[in-house]
């Protein structure tokens, strides 16, 4: 029975980090909410009064009778099963620590356009978004990018990967992070990317992998848009 | 060799979730940065140019030659070793999913007083904090509390624990969450707590455990204060 991924259709969002793992491994999966009736199935599962394990929010994974929520948790579970995690248990926790730092960064990226509330539209929190985005681009983004660059440069197995000597789900997530940042903040990334060459090289090497290359060209890959975490609001980008 | 926890001294902060696990298990640990010279040791580790595994931020755990960062990751690692995680692998991922939802809530609590930037003082982002806190108390806090209440009520092994039939690190974290929320938002919690009786009962049962009871009365337990995640700014609390 294939793995079932439950996530909102129409945006790459947080579900994309899980999709990339399935796609890179060439593993069969069902992206449930993108099938006819799938959204209703997802919402029913989230509200099932008989279910013991209920997620706070999508994405979640169903593997037979197990329901696993939270992206980093899903990837920690899938990593060894898809051949996308280190063999060594200690290194698996190193990978998980990096994935959780990516999670933190994603939350900060989300809050550049929603600094006050997820219940309000961007347009209802625009002055705060302008202020938060400027702080994010000046202080936080370079700190996070520099951190991941150091992680790559210090990997004892080589700067081609974040952890260990093989592709892991952390590499795939870093690829998507760069993709999203380029979409949302093109001006800022033109300034910052040259300072993180190992991260940029990792991005390119992931994009060039045959399965990922085919996936990116397929209609399974959703385009970024302004309902996603990564949004292109030119007024929030670095001004040139 | 005892486990070494590295976290800022002077605040419970995120380190407290790890301390509670050690204390509940009666496990020997060193709270490094609270010892003379410990803060310097922590900062040196974070900047060590030779280290492969560097944390983005405290807390992190050192167990022999392994350095593990991110609270949920540390607890996932320690859980089975301290007897504070379910035996079943699937349930361990359920526990991790819950812990990561607590992590998300903590980030939202932090941002009630820092909605714009961690580089600025609260006083420099007070109008935004007032707006974000009101949204948090009206929409997000009841949603999260209601979620954890449902998790307890639907636990097939009984509502005394979040996962499985024994104490886990998730229970300890929920205890501290309630403690912190009572400190930061006493008015709001007086309204919300009666609606989540299983969560309130879990809080009390954790507090009554002999080792936790002794810990809370000891000088190892740091008091909440306005440098922590949970801050008591009366203007941000629900107005009565």
What does this structure look like?
The structure is a homodimer of 240-residue chains. The first copy, chain A, contains nine helices and four strands; from the N terminus they run E-H-E-H-E-E-H-H-H-H-H-H-H. Chain A is α+β, with helices and mostly antiparallel strands. A four-stranded mixed beta sheet of chain A has the order 2-1-3-4, with helices on both faces. In chain A, helix 1 (15-25) crosses helix 6 (169-184) and helix 6 crosses helix 7. At the A-B interface, strand 4, helix 3, helix 4 and helix 5 of A face strand 4, helix 3, helix 4 and helix 5 of B.
| The CATH topology of the largest domain in chain A | Glutathione S-transferase Yfyf (Class Pi), Chain A, domain 2
Distance between the amino and carboxyl termini of chain A: 51 Å
Q: How many structural domains of chain A?
A: 2
> Architecture of the largest domain in chain A in CATH?
Up-down Bundle
Tell me which oligomeric state these chains represent.
Answer: homodimer
What strand order characterises the main sheet of chain A?
A: 2-1-3-4
The biggest beta sheet of chain A, please? 4 strands, mixed
Summed up, the helix count of chain A is 9
Q: How are helices and strands ordered from N to C of chain A?
A: EHEHEEHHHHHHH
Q: Helicity level of chain A, as a percent range?
A: 40-55%
Structural class by sheet pairing and helices of chain A: alpha+beta
Classified by CATH, the class of the largest domain in chain A is Mainly Alpha
Average of per-residue pLDDT values of chain A: 97
Radius of gyration of chain A, in angstroms, nearest whole number: 18 Å
The total of beta strands of chain A comes to 4
GO molecular function (chains A, B): glutathione transferase activity
Protein name (chains A, B): Glutathione S-transferase
Pfam families (chains A, B): GST_C_3 (PF14497)
InterPro entries (chains A, B): Glutathione-S-Trfase_C-like (IPR010987), Glutathione-S-Trfase_C_sf (IPR036282), Glutathione_S-Trfase_N (IPR004045), GST_C (IPR004046), GST_superfamily (IPR050213), Thioredoxin-like_sf (IPR036249)
